[in-house]
């Protein structure tokens, strides 16, 4: 207990320890490692009383691009949660003049920051941690530059390279590509390809719990040219399946609304490799650019990931989490159909 009467308790991460409490301040440390159900329960335990304003603080290193911390940061603009970011340079001790920058392992990252520091973290500890960790781990844990991309499917995706302002060009062919869904989102991407083979994703539509007829109306309204001028609309082959109640399938319903689609079966791994080849070719060039307005696709490119290894054996297929897989599936269907090779022609000589 403090002199002002305040008390502090350390709670285990369990629903029983969290639920039913009413406290002024709740500080959740290492939120990235929280069980989601426990974190959801923790949202409701703070209460303002006696002039003390309730507050909840969430602290963590962003270990993974698809983790809980990433989700909170993505939602911060809508939720109004302020974000404070710091790394080892805010807490490192001041570097003495007897140390030589040119011979210091930290110099490339430090660039003189430690000379102006006034913290508690020992420089020798930072050097030791740098030497015994991977570069990716050090950047994630100590420099807070980026999360660890070990399980990310598209680790080469870089917003600085692959996100840029691209608009509809009436001189280029226009494609649409669709992943069907109802509870999980229905996704449509509008894509153009220029003469140099650059794939340009210019717009996205992501919506759940809406009928196919309603989706069709939105697609036609948002398409920047007449329906007859759309070069092709690609989609998930599963859309051929018929609903047990209506007796129709999603592809058939789109056709009834005037949207003709094309599809072909493809393997997930093949589609992933094709996307990777457009993210970065063998000579280091990029052939894929996404408009900033395609927020959900950009998030999916960063967060689409393989599940954690079970029994020491990593999965060959990415996790179908119902969040990030659907925009990626729509993009896969584009490449599965657009890059389809024509059938071989046999001649007798």
Strand count, sense and closure of the main sheet? 5 strands, mixed
What's the number of extended β-strand segments? 7
CATH class bucket of the largest domain: Alpha Beta
Strand order of the largest sheet: 6-3-4-5-7
CA-based shape? globular
Structural class: alpha/beta
Mean of residue pLDDT values:
88
Low-pLDDT segments, ≥5 res: 341-347
CATH topology of the largest domain: Nucleotidyltransferase, domain 5
Distance between the termini: 95 Å
Number of helices: 13
Helix content: 25-40%
User: In CATH terms, what is the architecture of the largest domain?
Assistant: 2-Layer Sandwich
Strand content: 5-15%
Task: Tell me what you see in this structure.
The protein is of the alpha/beta class. The chain folds into three domains: 16-79, no CATH class; 88-141, no CATH class; 159-338, 2-Layer Sandwich (Nucleotidyltransferase, domain 5), CATH 3.30.420. The chain contains 13 helices and seven strands. Strand 1, helix 2 (36-42) and strand 2 form a beta-alpha-beta unit. Helix 11 packs across helix 13. It starts with 14 loop residues before the first helix and ends in an 11-residue tail after the last helix.
């Amino acid at each position: 207990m403090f002199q002002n009467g305040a008390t502090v308790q350390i709670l285990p991460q369990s629903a029983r320890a969290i639920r039913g409490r009413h406290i002024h301040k709740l500080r959740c440390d290492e939120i990235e490692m929280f069980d989601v159900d426990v974190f959801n329960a923790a949202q409701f335990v703070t209460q303002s009383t006696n002039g003390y304003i309730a507050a909840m603080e969430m602290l963590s290193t962003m270990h993974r691009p698809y983790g809980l911390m990433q989700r909170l940061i993505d939602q911060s603009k809508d939720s109004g949660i302020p974000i404070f970011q710091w790394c080892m340079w805010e807490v490192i001790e001041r570097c003495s003049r007897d140390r030589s920058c040119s011979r210091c392992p930290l110099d490339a990252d430090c660039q003189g920051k430690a000379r102006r520091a006034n913290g508690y973290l020992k420089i020798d500890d930072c050097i030791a941690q740098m030497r015994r960790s991977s570069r990716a781990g050090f950047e994630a844990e100590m420099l807070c530059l980026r999360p660890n991309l070990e399980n990310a499917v598209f680790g080469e995706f870089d917003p600085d390279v692959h996100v840029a302002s691209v608009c509809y060009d009436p001189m280029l062919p226009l494609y649409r590509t669709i992943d069907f869904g109802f509870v999980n989102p229905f996704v449509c991407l509008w894509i153009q390809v220029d003469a140099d083979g650059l794939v340009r994703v210019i717009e996205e539509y992501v919506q759940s719990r809406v009928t196919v007829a309603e989706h069709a109306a939105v697609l036609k309204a948002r398409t920047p040219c007449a329906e007859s001028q759309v070069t092709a609309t690609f989609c998930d082959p599963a859309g051929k399946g018929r609903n047990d109640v209506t007796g129709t399938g999603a592809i058939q319903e789109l056709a009834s609304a005037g949207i003709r689609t094309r599809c072909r079966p493809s393997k997930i791994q093949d589609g992933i490799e094709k996307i990777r080849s457009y993210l970065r070719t063998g000579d280091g060039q990029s052939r894929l650019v996404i408009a900033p307005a395609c927020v959900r696709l950009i998030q999916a490119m960063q967060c689409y990931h393989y599940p954690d290894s079970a029994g020491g054996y990593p999965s060959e297929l990415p996790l179908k989490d119902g969040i990030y897989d659907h925009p990626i599936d729509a993009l896969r269907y584009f490449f599965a159909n657009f890059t389809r090779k024509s059938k071989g022609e046999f001649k007798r000589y």
